[in-house]
Amino acid sequence: MTEQLYIKDLLTLQMVWEKPLTKEKALKVKQEWLDDLFGNLEQVITTNVGFYKALYYWLESEIKDKTLGDILIQYMPFFQNYGDYVSGYDKAIYTFEKMMKQPALQKWFSNIQANEPLAKGLNFDAFLIKPVQRVPRYKLFIDRLLKCTPQDDPDFPKLPAALEKCDKIAHVINSAKEKQIQREFMSKIAEKIDCGNELLMIPGRSFVKDIQIDKITRKSKRQPRHLFLFTDVLMVATDTLTERCVVQVKLQLKGSEVKDLPDDVENGFLNRFQFLSYPKSLELAAASKEEKDKWMELLLARIQEADKSLGSKIKVIPMFEPDAKVKRCPICSEKFTAVFRKHHCRQCRRVVCGNCTKHKRKLPSQSEGERKKRVCDDCWKHDEHWTPEGATSDAPYVSSSDEE
Ligand SMILES: [Zn+2]
Ligand SMILES: [Zn+2]
């Protein structure tokens, strides 16, 4: 094991970055950032040096009063330091990225990378990751030791315990690596999505999958959309090849529903399904049967998963009642004609005549600044949360979608 070189790298981390960052007041580095970055580096170094020395003396000395197993067991607590370091690594990288957004700090870091010989032309994060990369090597070392130690050797019974501890740390490292991959992925996704002034990368959210799909409007028109599925929300965005996809609405998965729709061969809408959510519900048409099945399954699985999370469930917005189905106004019973036209109540989503939808009100699903919406007389008699019997998402409303 090239412990010496490794320890030198750790000392470089302290000397080249930690000390100056702590001292140079002009850089305005917050104490909490330093804690995030260097956490227990000092402990990691101290125990590492001790372990290295003990190992070195053991190899050099002729009379061995301890076994190698004794040394390993003695220094096993030092793997706990590694565990702590590795668990904190995720946050350290996050803090480092945050710091790199400040021009003064970015300049400072790249100056060191370019001019400090100890940095060997590498940036800070290349050193920060060293202890994380180290543990699997210790595990390998113990593995090898276990293999070449005879079963009657006094070391033998001690090694599995050491190996088990290494395994635990290696497990922590693996999940940290997965998080790292996910984080890189999220920043790539973030480049593709424009979600206004809302934060895309919130803690606990990870990206699942995206798809280009057609949205079917209430007026039976196709609109190309790009859906981005995350572990907690479905983002519905515009779909353009050249620019970033602009998020139109963010739909919470918890409490949402997915509903299969039969093919509408007459109008050429195949592979349809509904995503019922809040503040909007959508009708979608996938490019193929396989894609539809895959996405319905994926959405259902994710909704199920999200339903287990804490927080309140949404009340899904029903789809608009399709025009074609309704012959008479359900309120005044007047027959619809080419002149006596159909309107949609934005609250109960039924087809109603113009005379019976004279009122307007602000609905709970609307965002601030939106205009008041047309509601029918039945809804007007009640408050804005009311829905008539049968106008829930279970109603057999099939071929329409939530379009303003
Ligand atoms: Zn009417
Ligand atoms: Zn109504």
3D structure, described in words:
A hairpin with a 5-residue loop joins β2 and β3. The chain starts with a helix and ends in a 23-residue tail after the last helix. The longest helix is centred in the middle third of the chain and has 34 residues. It folds into three domains: 189 residues, Dbl Homology Domain, Chain A; 101 residues, Pleckstrin-homology domain (PH domain)/Phosphotyrosine-binding domain (PTB) (PH-domain like, Roll), CATH 2.30.29.30; 87 residues, 2-Layer Sandwich (Herpes Virus-1), CATH 3.30.40.10. The protein has eleven helices and twelve strands. The strands form three sheets. The chain has an eight-stranded mixed sheet. Strands 9-10 form a two-stranded antiparallel sheet. α2 crosses α5, α3 packs antiparallel against α4 and α5 packs parallel to α9. It is α+β, with helices and mostly antiparallel strands. Helices cover 43% and strands 15% of the residues. The structure holds zinc ion (ZN) (2 copies). The site of one zinc ion has 8 residues, from β10.
Summary tags:
single chain; 404 residues; alpha+beta; Dbl Homology Domain, Chain A; PH-domain like; Herpes Virus-1; 3 domains; eight-stranded mixed β-sheet; two-stranded antiparallel ribbon; 11 helices; 43% helix; elongated; disordered C terminus; binds zinc ion
Whole-number tally of structural domains: 3
Q: Averaging pLDDT over every residue, what do you get?
A: 84
Q: Might you state the CATH topology name of the largest domain?
A: Dbl Homology Domain, Chain A
The count of DSSP E runs of length 2 or more, i.e. the number of strands, is 12
What percentage of residues falls in helices of 4 or more residues? 40-55%
Contiguous uncertain segments of 5+ residues: 391-404
CATH superfamily of the largest domain: Dbl homology (DH) domain
- The N- to C-terminal Cα distance equals 67 Å
The string of secondary-structure elements, in order, is HHHHHHHHHEEEEEEEEHEEEEH
Catalogue the ligands.
zinc ion
Structural class: alpha+beta
- What strand order characterises the main sheet? 1-5-4-3-2-8-7-6
CATH class division of the largest domain: Mainly Alpha
Morphology call: elongated
Summed up, the helix count is 11
Proportion in β-strands = 5-15%
CATH architecture of the largest domain: Up-down Bundle
